[in-house]
Specification:
With 141 residues, the chain is an alpha+beta fold. The protein contains 3 helices and 8 strands, in the order E-H-E-E-E-H-E-H-E-E-E. 22% of the residues lie in helices and 36% in strands. It has an 8-stranded mixed sheet with strand order 2-3-4-1-5-8-7-6. The longest helix is centred in the first third of the chain and has 12 residues, at 24-35.
Length: 141
């Protein structure tokens, strides 16, 4: 990647840390009992093949993800790596501008253009090959 620097910070905060799990209900129950977490939002995201539960942590979330189809990326992740951190979502003020900045910096994008995400957000994913091994989601509220 080049040394390109955007004029202003593209990330405003961590939106969420996504954790892939086999059993969403068991994971929710554990976070509730062990950490006092509460579910702020649940959604089935058909085009990504997942069901999510967002647990509030200050102004951010823990996103628990479970596959709803065997062909979803989360299903493949669980098969290869088991449960654990799947990706980090960074909040950005403008997802399209963040995508352009990532491209200018030489990043490989999974989503060449922003698309609809859960809870009415606009998102784009950056491939882990160009982000030091971490799948990144750019999230515009």
């Amino acid at each position: 990647m080049s040394g390109h620097r955007p004029a202003s910070p593209m990330m405003t905060e961590i939106d969420h840390v996504a954790i892939a799990v086999h059993d969403l209900e068991a994971a929710i129950a554990w976070y509730e009992s062990a950490l006092g977490a509460r579910v702020a939002h649940r959604e089935r995201i058909e085009h990504d093949g997942v069901e999510e539960a967002l647990l509030t942590v200050a102004e951010s979330f823990i996103q628990l993800l479970t596959p709803i189809s065997d062909s979803s990326p989360v299903a493949r992740f669980l098969e290869r790596r088991g449960e654990g951190i799947h990706h980090v979502g960074y909040r950005v003020p403008d997802c399209a501008a963040a995508v352009e900045a990532m491209l200018a910096a030489g990043a490989e994008l999974i989503d060449a253009t922003p698309r609809a995400g859960s809870r009415g957000t606009t998102v784009a994913f950056v491939h882990p090959r160009s982000a030091f091994g971490t799948l990144i989601e750019l999230v515009q509220e």
